[in-house]
């Protein structure tokens, strides 16, 4: 089963008077991982497609052609994949490889078939995917978290000690415009990216997961720096972050998240920092 919903773009003025439910309907994706299903969201923010592929008894393949005006899914797109579930497999144009938890893959444009499967349907793989338009074909690259030297940042005093693993990044592999990575907060830390920032030249999508308990929640901060709003995010839910919005979060315990970005450039540090006294 495959489903894809479309989310449209908004200006900061549009959301000024949104209710909680309206804000959640437009920016929060509540269900990504359903055993035996593909759940995708197409956002008109830089035309990113993201979502969950959760194979159970049978292998799954994303089939999108007419919806994108192409003959096959990756004819004019590049794809990033990170597995956050049980062990599985990915088969790329007939070449099959194992994918344990925290394994990732960059898959270049013009790849015709990407098939996902789980080793054990009772403990299915959960492939989080992010896909954006591409102008050039770059080599497919498997990326394991074990191969990445993380950026260690933050400190316990400010509750934001964390490791940032850059999967799809110029230091690791080539891509047209997709960047993708995995951030893990240390026990006792709850904040990510505070002080916050925007980057007008690219949008971002987050999926939050690996919560410490069933009662853990993340408060995702969004909006213009002087008109902030928030979304309460449960485990394995995703948030669309437009280029004009801050994107920061604080949890009731530690957690992990995957970030994916696309836009004008692939410079990770291309950020417009927001001073704490500018936030409202």
UniProtKB/TrEMBL annotation:
UniProt xrefs under CDD domains: cupin_KduI_C, cupin_KduI_N
Entry-linked Pfam families: KduI
Domain of life: Bacteria
Binding site residues for Zn(2+): 197, 199, 204, 247
Organism this protein belongs to: Enterococcus florum
Name under which the protein is recorded: 4-deoxy-L-threo-5-hexosulose-uronate ketol-isomerase
Role of this protein: Catalyzes the isomerization of 5-dehydro-4-deoxy-D-glucuronate to 3-deoxy-D-glycero-2,5-hexodiulosonate.
Gene: kduI_1
A single BP term in Gene Ontology: D-glucuronate catabolic process
PANTHER family xrefs: 4-DEOXY-L-THREO-5-HEXOSULOSE-URONATE KETOL-ISOMERASE
């Amino acid at each position: 089963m495959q489903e894809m919903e479309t989310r449209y773009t908004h200006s900061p003025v549009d959301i000024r008077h949104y209710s909680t439910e309206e804000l959640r309907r437009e920016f929060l994706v509540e269900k990504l991982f359903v055993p035996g299903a593909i759940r995708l969201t197409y956002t008109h923010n830089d035309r990113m497609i993201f979502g969950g592929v959760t194979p159970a008894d049978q292998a799954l393949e994303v089939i999108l052609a007419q919806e994108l005006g192409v003959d096959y899914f990756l004819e004019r797109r590049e794809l990033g994949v990170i597995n956050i579930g049980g062990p599985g497999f990915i088969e790329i144009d007939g070449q099959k490889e194992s994918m344990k938890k925290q394994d990732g893959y960059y898959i270049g444009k013009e790849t015709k078939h990407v098939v996902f499967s789980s080793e054990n349907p009772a403990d299915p793989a959960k492939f989080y995917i992010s896909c954006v338009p591409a102008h050039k074909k770059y080599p497919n690259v498997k990326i394991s978290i074990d191969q990445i030297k993380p950026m260690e940042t933050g400190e316990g005093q400010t509750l934001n000690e964390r490791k940032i693993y850059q999967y799809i990044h110029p230091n690791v592999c080539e891509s047209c415009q997709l960047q993708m990575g995995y951030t893990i907060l240390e026990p006792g830390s709850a904040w990510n990216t505070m002080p916050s920032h925007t980057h007008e030249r690219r949008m971002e999508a987050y999926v939050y997961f690996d919560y410490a308990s069933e009662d853990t929640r993340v408060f995702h901060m969004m909006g213009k720096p002087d008109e902030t709003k928030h979304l309460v995010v449960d485990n394995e839910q995703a948030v669309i972050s437009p280029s004009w919005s801050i994107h920061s979060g604080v949890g009731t315990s530690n957690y992990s998240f995957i970030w994916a970005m696309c836009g004008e450039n692939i410079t990770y540090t291309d950020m417009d920092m927001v001073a704490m006294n500018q936030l409202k």
